[in-house]
Design a protein that fits this description.
2 copies of one chain form a homodimer. Chain A is of the alpha/beta class. Chain A has 8 helices and 11 strands. In chain A, about 55% of the residues are buried. Strand 6 of chain A pairs antiparallel with strand 6 of chain B, so a sheet runs across the interface.
Amino acid sequence: VDGEVYLVGAGPGDPDLLTFRGLHLLRKADTVLYDRLVAPEILALAREDAELIYVGKARDRHTLPQDNINDLLVHYAREGKKVCRLKGGDPFIFGRGGEELEEVVAAGIPFQVVPGITAASGCAAYAGIPLTHRDHAQSVRFVTGHRKDGSVDLNWAGLVAEQETLVFYMGLVGLREICARLIEHGRAADTPVALVSRGTTDAQEVITGTLDDLADRIEGREIHAPTLIIVGSVVSLHPRYRWFGAADTGGA
Amino acid sequence: VDGEVYLVGAGPGDPDLLTFRGLHLLRKADTVLYDRLVAPEILALAREDAELIYVGKARDRHTLPQDNINDLLVHYAREGKKVCRLKGGDPFIFGRGGEELEEVVAAGIPFQVVPGITAASGCAAYAGIPLTHRDHAQSVRFVTGHRKDGSVDLNWAGLVAEQETLVFYMGLVGLREICARLIEHGRAADTPVALVSRGTTDAQEVITGTLDDLADRIEGREIHAPTLIIVGSVVSLHPRYRWFGAADTGGA
C-alpha cells in the first residue's frame, strides 16, 4: 500500500492565490477532503476521477467532528489512496492542521504539508493594509477572537503594545468585546480598526473605524463570513493604499 | 500612458510556492525589479522580452537605497511600463511593501498587491511545526530580530506569553541575545526553539534546541541565510511531524 496524505492550504478566498505546489498535489489525489472555505474553482481542479468529500462545518453544526477527519485521512491512506486534505488559508495558522495530522503521524503514513496564503496576509494585501511598516508597526500578532462560554478569553494586558498590528481571526461575534477590552487595557480609543469581510474575493468589503466606534458602525448591518479584524495604526494607510474592489466603507 | 505597478510576493524559497496570481502578473510585466531572495526559477518565468533589474541587497552594502526603488517604480510606470516588483516572502510582512509603494501611491499610478507565502508559514509547513495548536499555542507573533546599534531592541516583557508561538525574522545574529532576554523576562529556559535555515528549499536545515542551549549548539557552525527562528512549545512536535528533507539536527 502506498497511500499518502497531502495537507494543502488553499488560501484565503481568491482561487488564484493557490500555489503551484498545492495544485500539483491536488492533481495527484485520489481522494479530496475539503472545507467550506475552499473556493469551488479550486475544487474543480481536482482530477475528474477523484472522490470529493465535504468535511467542513455548516453554520451551527459540525458536519464531522475533528476525530472523524483524522480517522478518514488514515482510512483512505490505508486503502492506498493519495489523500489531499484541502483547507482554507494556511493549515498551520489556525487551521488545526497539526491536530488533523495526529493519527496520520501515529500510523506512520507518509505526508506532506503545503502552506497556503493565510487570511491575514491575503486580506492585508487586497485591502491595502501593510501588516508591518517602518512608521507604524514593527511586529504583527495573529490571535483567535473566537468566543468560549460567551466571552473572548484572551490575555488582554499582553495585547496592547503600541507599534504592533493585531489580527483577529474569527472575531466578528466578539468584536464589541475585543474593542472594549483593548481600550480598557490601554490601547488608544482612536486606534484604527478594519473589518474585512470575504477578503480577496469579488465580494470583499472593508469597513474601517476605531476601537471606539467600529462596533457601532456595523450595528444592524449584515456582515458576511469569513471576516478578519485588523487593529493598529497601519489601518490608517488603507484609504490611500486601497486598490481592490469597490465596496468600502470608511471613516477612520 | 498606462503604466502600472504589481507588488508581488514570490514566497519563501521553494519556487513552487508562487501563486497563480503572482505568475499571471509577472507574465504581464515589461520590467521586473527583484530581490536577492527571489528564486531563479521564478525569475525565469518572466517574459523573454522583459527587462530584469536587480535591486536587492548584497551582504554588507545596499545595492539600491530604499528611496531609489520607489523612484524606479514610478520612473518605469511613467514610461508606460507594467512593472512587477518581485519580493521574497510576503510584501506586507517585513517586506517593506508599504514603504516601497509610497511614491507610487502619491503619483496616482495604478497598482496591485499579491500576497506571498511568508517565511513563517513556509518554514513551519516544511519543518513540520504548526504555528498554532490546541495543546500548545493559541496565537502566533511575528517579530523582527534585526539588531539596531548592536543589540536587539524589543519589548521583551511583552514577548513572554506562554501558549504563544514567537517567530523571529532576521534573528540569526541576535540569536544568543534573543534567547537570553526571553529567559530573563520569564519564558522557561527549556522552551523549545528551532532555527530554520534556507527553509522550503532542498538545502533546508532545521536545528532544534531550547532557549538555554540553542546558541551553544550552533556555535562555530556555518549557518546559511535566510534563517527563521521559531520559539514555543509547538517546536516539540517537530521530531514527529518532520517530513521534508534530511538535514536535521535535533536535541529538543
